Amino acid sequence: MKILRTRAASVSRQGLCTALLVASLSAAVGAVPAHSSGDHDDPAPAPGNPQSRPHGSPNLTLPDLVPRPGASGRPGRDLGTGDIPDGATGIPATALAAYRNAEKIAKEQWPDCHIPWELIAGIGKVESEHAAGYGLRSDGSTEKKILGPALDGKQFALVPATDGGRWTGDPVYEHAIGPMQFLPATWAGYAMDGTGLGQKDPNNIFDAAAGTARYLCAGGLDLSKQDDIDKAVLRYNNSRDYLNAVVGWMRAYQNGKAVPVADPPAAPGNPAPAPGGPSRGSDTSPTEPPRRSSQPSPGTPAPGHSEKPTPSPQPTDPGKEKDPGKDKDPGKDKPVPPAPVTRLDRLGERTLKATAGQTFTDRTRVRALDRDGKPAQGTKVRFEIIGDTEARFPGQSRTVTAVTGKDGSATAPALQAGAKAGDFTVRATVEGRDIKPVDFDATVEAAPAPHADTLERVGTGALKAKANASFTTPVRVRALAKGKPVQGLALTATVLAADGKTPVKTGPFFKDEHGKPVRTLTLPATGEDGQLTLPGLFTGADTGAYTLVLATEDGTQLVLHLTVTAS
Fold first, then answer.
1. What is the DSSP letter of 492?
2. pTM for the full predicted model
3. What is the dihedral of CA 97, 101, 102, 105, to 10 degrees?
4. pLDDT per residue over 144-158, tens digit each?
């Protein structure tokens, strides 16, 4: 199937496809026997829920619904990089297994929903091209993370992050995630374990497809009815074009006997996404998807194609095509589950302590183990700072992810204690698995008050001024401890009589924030160089000798002599 190159032809083709799609729905749906709706555990999503709002650029290209003249409507023998005959579809084997598995789960848990796997596949096709180009593995995971753009209100809807960036790495805005492009908030309400291994990971196509089935079935919908299909799909993306595209691909899969093809490898670097697909960035540097073009870019497969479809073998009987369901090895395409992680163990001390402004000496470490108590290598462990604290991981982050090594251990980067004293928790969890977390109790202790053993004046010369004027020479002092500058030291300045002991009610004075005369003043803390400059020092009508005493809280003093002469 070739996409027509002109705008007029494209519009005409989509109009024809849409008309044929609407005409085909009634007949196809009417063939399904009516069933009564049973009780459903999940409520329907609230109207206007963020999942239904624009959260990316889906591929809204419709499939051809009418075979070309002379086309058989059956899978062709040449499934190379050229056209796939109309009616045939290529779905990566693991994705196809995930969709069918989700249908099976739905039949067991929501028997009155009647969701067909082809509907789930339609959403997978439109949202991520069945995860093609991301390195889909047989266990349902992908080599590259599928992450949509930040929903920051610019190109798409404004949706603040709801999980602190647990799935997306962005603590500010939501992103659609995984092959089915769930928002984290939606996944939290409809997450499913599609592998039976105890994980609920939206980045795994088995879990994501099962979650899609749960989401579409929620609220007691019966997806043998066209009205309920419309409701279900529109709650995924409230767009009529989106609905037409998803249902169009569903019908194409139902009518064309979807062909399982080899799982395509991950495209190198940042591969160009299929038209309108989500961004294909790395795990740590997701990029926004480009806007969908009316024409595919060079090298981009036409809708319904995998990037490198596997050619079908030549059938023995030229009049018969091989039934893809009849494989010599029925378990060949069965997903290979990852090594299950059953628990996390703490390594090292539970309690961590550091002084404000310093770095924690001890680091948080855990070990992931499987059901046999053996180390689980390659497990993603998330460390999160919980509580009212200024402590952070490098980069001012409250969360980091570390991958376990051969010994099953994962270590978080060193914690940096902020200036605020207090207690908080560092929690370690396994991403995508509901197992008991490991907590570490952390304390930031207040830094000891700075101490100076010496106060000295910076500069020379007598401090003299005339009556009813001010001292023109700035007074600067330096605080030292064993010859080194002391930062953050608080000093008090007091004007006394010439003996340096007797308080006075006249003579030199400072001004407070209201401009009133004061003869005792708390000064700003010393800087990094241990120095500070006193504010303006004024004189009254009285003349004579006075002293200015600068003192720390623990008694270190500097006495300066002041002289006021007649004006």
1. E
2. 0.41
3. 180
4. 999 999 988 887 778
